[in-house]
Each structure stands twice: as structure tokens, then as C-alpha cells.
Design goal:
Blueprint lengths: L1 H57 L5 H66 L1
Length: 130
């Protein structure tokens, strides 16, 4: 019986580790979603700035200084977008790693569930003979 309790304790630890990995993955996926929303917003701002610049240029209502400011603004937005894309790539690697470790953790939990089932079966057979 002592083996059963130790096995159950180890299984519980494995389940807790798995749950922790699931929580971490959920947090990473939430961050990814937020990042995607920020990038979409920045893309919209860039498109809007370009559209406004084009409208002003077609009406020949922009001075060189104003055109330069539009250009600087667009460059800053594109730089911010590039930084977010790099962060998204790093986050994607973290998510893939976390998914892999979660899969390994799930396999460990299943392994201990099978061991526990074998132990129960062995216990039943032993006590049925008695």
C-alpha cells in the first residue's frame, strides 16, 4: 500500500506541473492575442497616415516640412510595428516550446495513471485470491 500512496503523490505532482504548464501556455496565448491586436491597430494607423498623405499630396496642399513630418510619423509607426513583429516571433517560439513541454507533461501524467491502474489491478488480483 505504501507504494500506492507514493505513486499517487508523484502522480499528483505531475498533474500539478501539467496544470501549471497549461496556465503558462494560456497566458502566452493571451499575450499573443494582445500583440496581434496591437499590430493590427498599427497597420491601420500606417494605412491611414499613408492615405492622408496621399490625399494631401494630390491636392498639393503639403509643404516639404509637412511631408517630412508625415514621413517621420510613418517611419516611427513602421519601426514600432517591426518591434512588435519581432516580439511576436519570440513569443511564438515560447508558445511552441511550452506546447512541447505540455505534451511531455501530459505523457508523464498518463504514464503515472497507467502505473496506478496496473497497481490497482495487481491489488485486486492479489486480494481476490485470498
Amino acid at each position: 500500500m505504501g507504494f500506492h500512496f507514493r505513486l499517487r503523490a508523484v502522480q499528483k505532482v505531475q498533474e500539478l506541473k501539467r496544470d501549471e504548464k497549461k496556465q503558462t501556455l494560456a497566458e502566452l496565448l493571451q499575450k499573443q492575442n494582445e500583440l496581434n491586436e496591437k499590430m493590427a491597430s498599427l497597420r491601420e494607423k500606417i494605412a491611414q497616415a499613408r492615405s492622408e498623405r496621399t490625399q494631401w499630396m494630390s491636392g498639393k496642399m503639403l509643404s516639404m516640412a509637412q511631408l517630412h513630418k508625415f514621413h517621420q510619423f510613418e517611419c516611427r509607426l513602421e519601426q514600432d510595428l517591426g518591434e512588435l513583429q519581432m516580439e511576436a516571433e519570440r513569443l511564438l517560439l515560447l508558445i511552441e516550446t511550452q506546447q512541447s513541454t505540455l505534451l511531455e507533461s501530459e505523457q508523464e501524467v498518463k504514464k503515472f495513471e497507467k502505473l496506478e491502474e496496473k497497481q490497482r489491478e495487481h491489488y485486486r488480483r492479489t486480494h481476490e485470491r485470498s
